[in-house]
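ESCALATION

Customer reports they have been waiting on this structure for their group meeting. Please prioritize. Original submission:
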Amino acid sequence: MEERRVVITGLGAVTPVGNDVKTMWDNVVAGNSGIDFATRVNKDDFPAKVAAELKDFDPTLYMDKKDARKMDPFTQYAVAASKMAVEDANLTIDESNRDSVGVWIGSGIGGMKTWEDQHTKFLEKGPKRVSPFFVPMMIPDMAAGQVSIQLGARGINSCSVTACASGANSIGDAFKAVQRGDADYMIAGGTEAPISNMAFSGFSSMKALSLNQDPKKASRPFDANRDGFVMGEGSGILILETLESALERGAHIYGEIVGYGATGDAYHITAPAENGEGAARAMRHAINDAGVTEDQVDYINAHGTSTELNDKFETEAIKRVFGDYASKIAISSTKSMTGHLLGAAGGIESVIAIKSIEDSVIPATINYETPDPACDLDYVPNKARKQDVNVVVSNSLGFGGHNVALVFKKYQ
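Update from on-call: job pushed to the front of the queue and completed.
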């Protein structure tokens, strides 16, 4: 059976640098950081002091107050971004198509705030005071479930839980569902609301978080003085649909998704495989799936977490795949501005990748001040670059050895 072409017709986002796609993109292009001192936790209790939090997010703009109270923030973020994306796509979901509209939204850790709040209530007031909504608010698949309910989408409904690769896996899996004919439209991406005492404690114990006391300088991917990632929150959602449907509807086509590669390291629970071997295989698979050659790739939106091992081994992975051409590719980590949104990272960074194609702009890696001999490629330092962008690779890597690469292409 002939594979169907899949295009992107809608974008939605709530992020630390803006609660809609335009604001987010304008800030990313301008090099503005959304990182500040943490307010969701008492920063004085932790060695890490900074986080990338949403500002002025109001869930009641997108759902009833009663419904919002039954959702953890990670689900609220997904519902908001999904409704924006559906509206942006000018997609009407009704009886004529609702069975062919699917939802695939990933989350790495689900409802952390709900878990903490209800556990505290359990300890202080006993089991009878635990909310009957505790479990359905906490479980990671509920973002996809609630988006389906809120929008009436009755097609395939799923959630990829692959740590920091969750959003990218969800987009890749949704792409394949449309490509092979399991759905005609997919609402796909990632969401996360992890800034809580338990998550902060866990990542602090791992010594994974940046201890930099200057919020705007803390996330510094590929820089020699990087010292850990900055935890972020939010959601990024794409509307994927068949090219045939998009043309028939007269929809605006942002670009095309053409490649998906996913691999496992089989190496370590948190550390990436030596020399970026697993990430390299994911990129190769995605490029082969896309039917493009290495020298056609204009931009790589790197996973680029600002941790010592990730940035070093991701650089090595890019060199393994692209050889001498690696030094000619523009690479940037927008986590330098958004922080690391964990399971939502792949969703947000896919939106950024698509906007880079549409606007012919490659966002910078800000805070790149001191070159690292182990990270010696073109990381588009500190200032966005105006450049024609036809093909983008977006990388996402997760604890457990999950590696994902997506390939987006200018629609022609």
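Sent to customer with the following note: The mean pLDDT is 97.
Escalation resolved.
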